Sequence to fold (786 residues):
Amino acid sequence: MGKLTLLSGNKAVAYGVKLSRVQVVSAYPITPQTPIVEYIAEFVAKGELKAEYVHPEGEHSAIGAALAAALGGARSFTATCSQGFGYGFEVIAQAPAYRAPFVMAVANRTLGWYWALASDYSDTMTARDLGWIQYYVEGCQECLDAVIQLYRIAEDERVLLPAMMCLDGFHISHSSEPVNIPDQAEVDEFLPPRKVYDHTTDPDSKGYVFPVLPAPLHTPYRRMFEEILHRAKDVIKEVTKEFEERFGRKYGLIEEYRVEGADHLLITMGSMSTAAKRAVDKARSDGIKVGLIRVAFYRPFPVEEIRKVIEREGVASVGVVDRAVAHGTRMGPLGLDVLSVLYNLNGKVPVTNFIAGMGGDDVSVNDFMGMIDRLTKSSCPSGGCVRTVYIEHKPPKKAGLVEFKNTVYAPGCQLCAGCGATLVTRHVLRVIGKRSVLVFPPNCVSASIAMHFPSNWMGVPCVLANYAATGAYSRGLVRAYRVRGKKDVKVVAFAGDGCAADIGLQSLSSAAECGEPVLWITYDNEAYMNTGIQRSGTTPAKAWTTTTPVGTVWRGKREFPKDLISIMIAHRVPYIATASPAFLKDMEVKLRKAMEVVERGEGLAYVHIHSPCPTGWRFPESKTVEVARKAVLTGAWPLLEVDHGVFRLTVKPSKLLPLKEYVRLQGRFAHLSDGDVGEIQQVIEANWRRLLELHGKKLF
Amino acid sequence: MSDELPEIPLIRVDTLRSEPTASWRVLKPVIDLEKCRKCWLCVDFCPDGVISKSEEGPVIDYRFCKGCGVCANECPVKAISMVREV
Ligand SMILES: Cc1ncc(C[n+]2csc(CCOP(=O)(O)OP(=O)(O)O)c2C)c(N)n1
Ligand code: SF4
Ligand code: SF4
Ligand code: SF4
Fold:
């Protein structure tokens, strides 16, 4: 039965997870996947799903924890895409060997290379040959249905492999359609609880998998895995058939669409198939005999199923549409796979491989009409022709641009009105000047550079570092300028708190410990803001975020924030400071000291700047500086420095303001009772007393 | 089309180009120069740096002002008022 509701692809995935009674969820935010784990967090916060929820510091760990939970015998789930997928790759590659079934949703997005937010398959295609099951859905209903079916398939003892559920970023993840949400009882009947197998890692099990093999066993095990994946096709057929009988929705390895008597055949994957089908309808009504195969399960690859259609219908030309490029082969991965299908056919069918929709570019019905037109005209007298055609569109031109010459900063960035980080960035640029290079991990500020293309609003060269490698990128640059005799160039890492406190901490720590002369600036907006307000290591206790929502079970973030200043003190770096945009003089003095330390090559200088975020902290955008000031005056954001080991409070109010003057300005604390505020105030006051004691002391 | 594109897409450092953000504004800051004491706090605190100093007092570049109201909130003599855009 179920009920029909308008759901986005992401929300449909979250419902699939809930209905599958997933027991452990572990995930790290990344656009456009994030809403999946936000919706799941809401289910957990409200007590609608009883699951353990892990908040790791990056995808390497997020996928690792999900894999390990499956190893330990729980039904587990994670989600990612793009850069996160790349960062988690090592774990992804290892997962099949453990024979631990779990489902990972991937809201497909370009894997940078050049970055973009929307869908192509350059992320998941890197994992196509690793032994995972890969399923690419076409729409939102299929998202929900696929999750449930994939647990059944992956957990079947004939399979026991991890499964990737791929939904096109934005085209599916953020588009909505009416989705039937089945009743829990119906799903329970279809999907039994996770079975615990003999190889589950547990002292009560028969044994366990330790994924190491002597060399001579690698080839036989590869063969075996190939057979298992192949065998999985039978399970897929059984499971999709049973699903159809129970729920009335038909799925399979491939979907055939109007293939009867087709002279021409389009082969597609994912969301673009919908536009392709409309084009097929149009062409059919014009008398062109064209049909379509949508590849749903890409791994195991449906070789026989595709070949059968081509032979049965006597197809004369095939057009394969790829949302990925296998660079160096002149083709896309799906194109290459289809070629291998056709190799054994009698008579050679010409193949046109269309490369389309990269970086999330829309592929329209008209584009598909053009492709069909090409197919009807593709003559190939000698047989066996293979062509590749790129479907390209012109980008929209920006009009009315205003030019600024020889400046470190120009107005017009795309950051929110009243953004504290904008204020911080602007003053940092002013102080560091033109002889600097900025190293940016992904965050709000670097996203604004992306939005500024083909120009920038910062007049210094900027490097986009991979999130976890920001320290390392900075070090490489420092060394290059050193060997090139350009010692006056300052390398400035400009990281959000998500980078500094979580995913980038080990890279920062290594650069600090090695005494690398880098000016590291953390602008702290106390959450992952660019991905839409998820908890970070520095999010204050009890604060609402989308991954620490407020419900009956959860009431905001449970933990107190990570103390990065103490961590830097433990590294004994020559200069450490906090700063606030409400105290600009103080900030400027500190930045200049930090620059001197770096110029003298003494080591890493660390400046941690509070950056109130009206969007994420939920206060009116006019209050940014007021919020920053209140943070300092209430003791929530002490202004301090540790200059060559000597600790000093640089702004020392004789009496702290009551914390509520700061907290009550912000919606993220709206659920706090006076008692809650009092509790936090006690911690803050204790900290303040500790800092007063340290004032003037040499710490190292 | 690919012929028109450079193989290596460069972002220039000497010249910056920005799209105006005036259309973001719902409220517009208006400075009462009579009241203004030229403390320049608004110049410092405007997140987007669109207020500059002049002999007469602060000048707002309305092409880029986003209308956040930080300047009005911070002005110690309330010389800036936020008025509805017309
Ligand atoms: C390896 C990796 N994981 C995840 C992301 C997605 N991502 C982009 S920006 C961002 C949040 C940034 O948060 P923070 O560093 O605190 O800076 P803010 O956006 O808050 O300014 C995330 C998670 C990514 N780009 N790379
Ligand atoms: S979300 Fe917050 S930090 Fe990001 S641009 Fe908006 S105000 Fe600034
Ligand atoms: S309203 Fe905001 S953007 Fe406009 S001048 Fe005032 S502070 Fe600057
Ligand atoms: S903050 Fe007010 S008083 Fe100070 S310069 Fe600006 S308008 Fe004048």
